[in-house]
Amino acid sequence: FGCTLGRHALFFAMHGYEVSACDSNPANLAFTEQAARRQGISINLWELTTEAIDQHRCRYDYVLGWQLFDSTGSHDLSGSLSKLGGLLRPGGMAQLSLPEQPTRMPFHIAANSNDPNRTNTKQQSVTYARLSALTLTSSLVDAGLETIDLHLKRGPQTPHPYWHIIAEKPF
What we know:
Elements: H1 7-14, E1 20-23, H2 26-39, E2 44-47, H3 50-55, E3 60-65, H4 68-72, H5 77-87, E4 88-99, E5 103-104, E6 126-127, H6 133-142, E7 146-153, E8 162-168
Parallel strand pairs: 1-2, 3-4
Antiparallel strand pairs: 4-8, 5-6, 7-8
Helix pairs in contact: 1-2, 5-6
């Protein structure tokens, strides 16, 4: 769910899993497709749109949404989690990470940052309210998911804390 450059999708596919990956940015999908082809692996790629989500409902046993708001471009927590939860089969698991305080970046860099055609829109950076454990748990319940694990963690490469979540869609 928001594969960006396909790091996780490629990893799972290389280890024998059947993988579908989606992103709202076609450049990210093209990059992931090229990387998969170079490595001789198969990944089902699809553009992250509302229509595509409806077509993929209840298909997956596991959904990974890493740095969720960064990759979906959406800052609608309940809407994003509902869409993600709708992709899971009953009994399916979701593993998510999302920033404690989401920020919309002032520009978007295409998959290849050396690409002279990259998009560079002059938007203001926007910082959203911090996400609390209560807000996240409530939003997961609204999305039809049960929280298994929820903790705030600062990684060695990220200056800001990220929520790490494991949730299940009940049978």
